[in-house]
Specification:
Blueprint lengths: L2 H11 L10 H18 L3 E3 L11 E3 L11 H9 L4 H8 L3 H11 L6 E2 L5 E2 L5 H16 L6 H12 L11 H15 L2 H5 L4 H18 L1
Antiparallel strand pairs: 1-2, 3-4
Helix pairs in contact: 1-2, 1-7, 2-4, 2-7, 2-10, 6-7, 7-8, 7-10
Protein name: GPP34 family phosphoprotein
Pfam family, one: GPP34
GO molecular function, one term: phosphatidylinositol-4-phosphate binding
Length: 217
């Protein structure tokens, strides 16, 4: 399950228009990065290290242990063919990731497709339990300093990296100063020390650091 990418898109759709509330350029980047972080959390990719055949700074594919998620499989197969720099991986994935996610969420009954015109479509969330939980986790991590789950930490990290938290929150200056400070801590990996973590969470944090640099460069 591509939990990070799915949660992120559901959060961006959770508004009165039922359309993603982050403009397309940033949205394509964070959704593509989210798919890569789902693979990292599943320990299917990681940044290259000394001794790898791939040059430093590349994302490398590891050995799969079963069937792949339909959302993440294209990204994994791409990295299987060739290790890529995080920015290159994001750029290659951004063309199709959103449509793949929307189709998957519609197919699993989590959103509905509602044509508005020949160019516009609304995507109302059909069951708000999941998105309400994801939103509560984001708010709790940011405002209550509760240790975030890996998915929540990844969502916050990605949106913070592209200055996109305004898509979810409306705050005064004091509130934004707090949120940017806390989100910055999470983006730097503080959540790993705050939570009970294992190899999957550490790999997620390390990969997120590499991908965050690509998003902010």
């Amino acid at each position: 399950m591509a939990q990070i990418a799915e949660d992120l898109l559901l959060l961006l759709l959770d508004n009165a228009s039922a359309q993603p509330c982050l403009e397309k350029a940033r949205r394509d980047r964070v959704l593509s990065a989210a798919v890569l972080l789902d693979l990292a959390h599943a320990c299917l990719i990681r940044p290259s290290v000394d001794g790898d055949p791939a040059p430093a700074g590349r994302l490398v594919a590891l050995t799969p242990r079963g069937r792949l998620d339909p959302v993440t499989e294209p990204a994994f197969r791409m990295l299987q063919r060739r290790a890529l720099r995080p920015r290159s991986a994001v750029d290659k994935l951004r063309r199709h990731t959103e449509e793949t996610l929307l189709t998957h969420l519609e197919g699993t009954g989590q959103i509905a497709r509602m044509p508005l015109s020949h160019r516009q479509t609304a995507w109302p969330v059909r069951n708000r339990d999941r998105v309400a939980y994801a939103r509560s986790q984001v708010l709790s991590a940011l405002f209550d300093r509760r240790p975030p789950t890996p998915s929540t930490a990844a969502v916050i990290t990605l949106l913070h990296s592209v200055d996109g938290l305004g898509a979810l929150l409306s705050l005064n200056d004091r509130g934004w100063r707090w949120v940017h400070g806390r989100a910055g801590e999470i983006a730097l990996g503080s959540w790993v020390d705050e939570s009970h973590t294992g190899l999957a969470e550490v790999n997620l944090a390390v990969t997120a650091s590499a991908i965050r640099a690509a998003l902010t460069a």
